[in-house]
Amino acid sequence: MTNYTYKYLIIGGGMTADAAAHSIRDSDPKGTIGLISSEDDPPYARPPLSKALWTGDEELEDIDLGTSEASLEMHLGRIATKIDRPNKKIIDEKGNIYSYTKLLIATGGTPRKLPNIEEKGLIYYRTLSDYKNLKALVDKNNTFGVIGGGFIGSEIAAAIKMYKSDAEVTMIFPESGICALIFPKILSNHLNDYYRENDITVITDDLVTNITERDKIYLVETKSGKKLKFDTVIAGLGIKPNIKLAEEAKLEVRDGIVVNKYLQTNDPDIYAAGDVAIYHNPALDKYIRVEHEDNALMMGEIAGENMTGKEISFDHLSLFYSDLFELGYEAVGFLNSKLEIVEDWKEPLEEGVIYYLKEGRVQGVLLWNVWEKIDEARELIAEPGPFSLEDLKGRIQ
């Protein structure tokens, strides 16, 4: 057992933790910083794991975030198991004790698992270790089942196919189309066709009910009765925020750790940021939890500054983006295909702006192959409205 003492302590080893460490160091050149991460790798950029690393636009050495430049001590491969709030200490799985003055919880999330399926060897894709594992399997195998039609599933299916053109890739998901939970039906169905044109088998409206492995081949069974065989199975089913540590410490939690506008929990010396934090966004006038790069970076930066004594309100409305073969998009705000949707196509299904409304107010904007318009979209979401179809046609071009 070893005792450590830091002015600033960060639990988490992702992009939020890195942004916070650099921000703390910029504001306090001498304050000691400690970081505890369950991963063995130092903080790295996560988006390239399903994008640029597969296309060759980036190499592994490019994704290191340079966290060590913040002059801190990193405790990698360690799991924080308890927050002792009265004594301001963290205990890890080895019994080591870390004392802090200010604490940041940036524990991110854990991939959701397939219910009632315990088969080993399935890849629930999220980490650098997952990327290395999958890359090695893609290099030697040829048939791949991708379970999930959302962000991760759509990106991984495209990434494998772009990296290895003769790979046989099959997507399986319960929705009617790719990213059907956020895209309007016509666009989601178009993506089904687009992926099929790129030689990916797309199985919609079906659930995986069982997976068994025999002689290094996975048999995937679905609710509709399909029986499919793959060398490798990858699942991208979203994440669950890692709130257990905070919950056991009696911090306020919902679907995430609740923070105020300064990113403080109900303990003023404990902050939370990134995928795990839920906060009130003034533009949307509701509590949200965001799982994207822009949010991780901005939240980490402001949390770090506030830990050093500043009081900066976090009111940022984060963007997110994706690349799907030759298609690409940026989006901001709250996107849900069940909202009222206004589509403004410059070229149908190729280039356009899609607006998501609730009671006449814009909640989110999808920029489909439209670039450098995020600030305009943020300004629109901040406006109270109400907006009609006529108001929005041509608003962002």
Structure, described:
This protein has 397 residues and is of the alpha/beta class. The protein folds into three domains: 177 residues, FAD/NAD(P)-binding domain (3-Layer(bba) Sandwich); 113 residues, 3-Layer(bba) Sandwich (FAD/NAD(P)-binding domain), CATH 3.50.50; 67 residues, Enolase-like, domain 1 (2-Layer Sandwich). The protein is built from nine helices and 28 strands. The strands form seven sheets. A five-stranded parallel sheet has the order 4-3-2-8-21, covered by helices on one side. It has a five-stranded parallel sheet with strand order 10-17-11-12-13. It has a five-stranded antiparallel sheet with strand order 24-25-28-27-26.
Task: List the keywords.
397 residues; FAD/NAD(P)-binding domain; 3 domains; five-stranded parallel β-sheet
Roughly what fraction of the amino acids lie in strands?
25-35%
How many angstroms does the end-to-end distance come to? 60 Å
What is the CATH C level class of the largest domain, in words? Alpha Beta
- Label the CATH architecture of the largest domain: 3-Layer(bba) Sandwich
Q: Regions with pLDDT < 50 over 5+ consecutive residues?
A: none
Whole-number mean pLDDT: 96
Helix residue percentage: 10-25%
Q: What's the CATH topology label of the largest domain?
A: FAD/NAD(P)-binding domain
Radius of gyration: 22 Å
Question: How many helix segments?
Answer: 9
| Count of distinct structural domains | 3
CATH superfamily of the largest domain: FAD/NAD(P)-binding domain
Structural class: alpha/beta
Q: State the total count of DSSP E strands.
A: 28
Strands side by side in the biggest sheet: 4-3-2-8-21
Largest sheet: 5 strands, parallel
Net shape: globular
